[in-house]
Amino acid sequence: MSAEATRVSPEWLALREPADAEARSRDLAESLERALPASGPRVIHDLGCGSGAMGRWLAPLLAGPQHWVLHDRDTDLLALAAAGVPGPAADGAPVTVEAACTDIVWMHAPDLAGATLITASALLDLLTVEELDRLAGLCVGAGCPILLTLSVVGRVELAPADPLDPCVAAAFDAHQRRPTRRGRLLGPDAVDLAVEAFRGRGAEVLVRPSPWRLGPAHRALTAEWFTGWVAAACEQEIELAGRCGPYARRRLRQAGAGELAVSVGHADLLVLP
After folding, report:
1. CA 213 to chain centre
2. Dist CA 122 CA 126 (whole Å)
3. pLDDT tens digits, 140-163
4. Which class would CATH give 10-272?
5. Tens digit of pLDDT for each residue in 124-142?
6. Would you give the DSSP letter of residue 200?
7. Any alpha helices (H) in 40-128, and if so which ranges?
8. How far apart are CA 227 and CA 260, in angstroms?
9. In the chain, where the domains are located
10. pLDDT tens digits, one per residue of 203-261
11. Against a cut of 0.90, is the pTM above it?
């Protein structure tokens, strides 16, 4: 992302990777396999790759030799991703990687030369409308399928329910749409706007839900996600801070005891030229 973006910690990425893998749409991965060329090496550009989790999930689902080009502006994360080589492919074919230190907001067509697939994860909601439009044009111009996973859609459900849940959820969504020096972030509006941007360029777009479903097996992730969720909401709506202390302590006790179930809505998109 651009220089204004907050750095994502490797610890957070490692914590969420299993839940991400469970959530991503296998249906779209199967449709993607059918859309890719039947022969020849597959050159896959992963935009904002982070720790490389997308490759570790997708490479074993696709057949044939694969070369992943990992794009991120965080050199520490790039090194981590390059060290965690995904694969092998579904048929045992080799998977190779290369790292490219790239600010994806300012990519150009030559950066995607030779791509047979473009991927990204948890990215669209962090863009502005101008950045999304530019990225959509660049990716469609590459003439290959595009798989975009885990974009938030603004639906969060906690069980058991609490009267404060809707207030925190609304403030969090507003925080995700906050203005920045780059422009207003898309947050939960990103999926609908991305569909419009890609279809407006003549591409076919398939959309599937990919929610996190967190329960007793995800206690650490649930607690970490909830802490960040409440903190962002209170940053957006200062008056919430005085009301959220007992609420947060109660919820974190529930999470630690395995008594809190959370559904965090996301969507995956497969764009076909």
Report:
1. 15
2. 8
3. 999 999 999 999 999 999 999 999
4. alpha beta
5. 999 999 999 999 999 999 9
6. T
7. 53-58, 75-83
8. 13
9. 10-272
10. 999 999 999 999 999 999 999 999 999 999 999 999 999 999 999 999 999 999 999 99
11. yes
Burial class (CB in 10 A: 0-12, 13-18, 19+), 144: buried
Place of tokens 């974190």: 252
CA pair distance 107, 270, nearest whole angstrom: 21
Return d(Cα 68, Cα 49) in angstroms, integer: 10
Distances in Å between the Cα of 169 and the Cα atoms of 51, 102, 150, 209, 211 are 28, 33, 18, 19, 16
Token pair of 111, please?
Answer: 């950066």
The span from the CA of 75 to the CA of 270, in Å, is: 28
Q: Is the dihedral of CA 45, 74, 107, 110 positive or negative?
A: negative
User: Please, what's the largest Cα pairwise distance for the chain?
Assistant: 60
Q: Is the peptide bond before 273 cis (omega within 30 degrees of 0)?
A: no
Q: What pLDDT shows up at residue 6? A: 58
**Single-letter code of the amino acid located at 179:** P
What sign does the dihedral 147-176-8-157 (CA atoms) show? negative
Kindly report the average pLDDT of the chain as a whole number.
95
